[in-house]
Amino acid sequence: MSEPQQSTPPPDPRPPQPAPDPPRPWRTEGLPPAPSAKSNRPKWSLLAMLAAGYAVVFAILTVQDRLAAPEPVPYTEFKQQVGGKNVSELFARGDSIQGVLKKGVPVPGDTTRTYERFTTERPTFASDDLLAELTDGGAAVRATPLVQERGILTNLLISVAPFLLLIGFYVWMFRRQQNMMGGGLLGGTPRKPVDKDTIRVTFDDVAGIDEVEDEINEIVDFLKDPGKYRKLGARAPKGVLLAGAPGTGKTLLARATAGEANVPFFSASASEFIEMIVGVGASRVRELFTEARKVAPAIIFIDEIDTIGRARGGARAFGGHDEREQTLNQILTEMDGFSGQEGVVVLAATNRADVLDPALTRPGRFDRQIMVHAPDQKGRLAILKVHTRKVPLGTDADLEKLAASTPGMTGADLANLVNEAALLAARRNQDTVAHRDLTDALEKVQLGTARSVVIPQTERRRTAYHEAGHALLGMLQPGADPVRKVSIVPRGRALGVTLSTPDADRYGYDANYLRGRIVGALGGMAAEQEVFGVITSGAESDLEHVTRVARSMVGRWGMSDRIGPLSVLPLEGDPRMAGVSETLLNAVDDEVRRITEECYADARRLVREHRAQLDAIVTELLAHESLDEAEIYAAAGIVREPAHA
Q1: Does 467 participate in catalysis according to the annotation?
Q2: What is the pLDDT of residues 565-598, one digit of tens each?
Q3: Whole-model pTM?
Q4: Choice among 260, 467, 530, 591 that is catalytic
Q5: DSSP result, 76-108
Q6: Which domains does the chain possess?
């Protein structure tokens, strides 16, 4: 069949045929559903049913009123009943009279019917003494009508009220069900993009992750100028997976990407897609992607995607969850539907990239995976400068020194640190945030909030020896992290704390350094054993840390000659499920015990050999409760040497 021409075609002798429905794909991308000719039928049908019901109820009520109305009788008939003393009650308004007979009598002119209630009109020319006759006959004359008749308006309201209540009930149920199912399944309000004008975040607000910005700048450049890439046959990555520890700035980076590209930004948490009702999550995914295509170029950001993107099947699967799998399948299908020319990029964030389904992380879905690590010292300094832009700093505030003493902190940790310092300065009625406020806030964040607890002197002295043992052995270990703070002020769950941080960021640890960490952690327990001859429960957290480090050395990092270069202990799960034998696990336990016992023996030996330095630190602690780095090394008589990276 040839294409129709622009001119009017000749008349077709065949009878007109209804136009076939256009072929519909499984989902419509970027366009609302086409209106259907049958869409109005349920509405008109419902209106017709309501009108018919209203008419029936109105007619029934009206007929009922007519049947219950009093019988109209002539005035002469009424006078006969008054004379016969058959009137029981009577009400009169002007010349209109209503009444009730004591005994029913036939209707005048129709002997087949009788009446008791009646109404009549008294002629204006009547001159009888009606009240006296009624009184003689024992009739009661009332001041209110005997029959309260409803008017047309009352009947109208009564007849419509049940339908209004029924409609209101169904509307309430519909909205309740719509809210419970998230709105997406029953035609709720579509998800709107974050307003890029009111929530404006750019790369100027992101610091400390320059290498990640360089990676994602390509996405920004493509969304700004897609023609430059399309003419060379290139397409934008369909998805970018941001993986990293919590608080490293993955969500902030996604928002900054949308702000730099000046495109709509759709943000959703993966947990928002999961519902008890199977199919709701997949419907929400379709709705989200459809709305993004309508305003393309756009960015879709799905936070914590591991909630729905876990591997299907295998050791890491948590049973069969139909709703989670349907939602994941819908995301996979939607991302496959991108042609590369739509300008919709999916960003996702997770801190558990290892549990994601391989179908989600393959090229063509999430083409690019970017690891977002905790910032280094230079990055922490840049982050501190960003978060202190609106904070008035004192002249003595040293952000470089603060950045050097916060290794391992993420952007969220540093933002919280600056906020705590500002709150502390406000409580002290200061106009600026001094360096002392920053260091006190760091202590609060790292060590916990100080508690006002009255501790007996003996317990206080034992705590001082415990913390002095940690500090002394930390200073004596070659290459160990410098001791920054020692305190016997109760903070959090601990009665005292010892803080050691490196001079520079560390990215790898050798066996000697780790053994030194174990010796330092056992220093408190060793000091109590040597001085008091007892071991207290205060070493609980120390033993947990020691056991964790020793097991990692033996079972994960190959630092045991007996076990060899094997990874025996997985990050999670039972090692027996991976085929590790009981013999090998017993050997790991023996090696862990050997390392900790050797380190504990070294700790006790060092405490005995340097008892005078230990007592000197304790004396200063009991006098001042808290010692900073310079005071600690001065009390021990040890020259501070830079730690080796």
Answers
A1: yes
A2: 888 888 777 888 878 888 988 999 999 999 999 9
A3: 0.62
A4: 467
A5: HHHHHHHHTT-EEEEEEETTEEEEEEEEEEEET
A6: 70-148 (3.30.720.210), 203-372 (3.40.50.300), 379-447 (1.10.8.60), 457-636 (1.20.58.760)
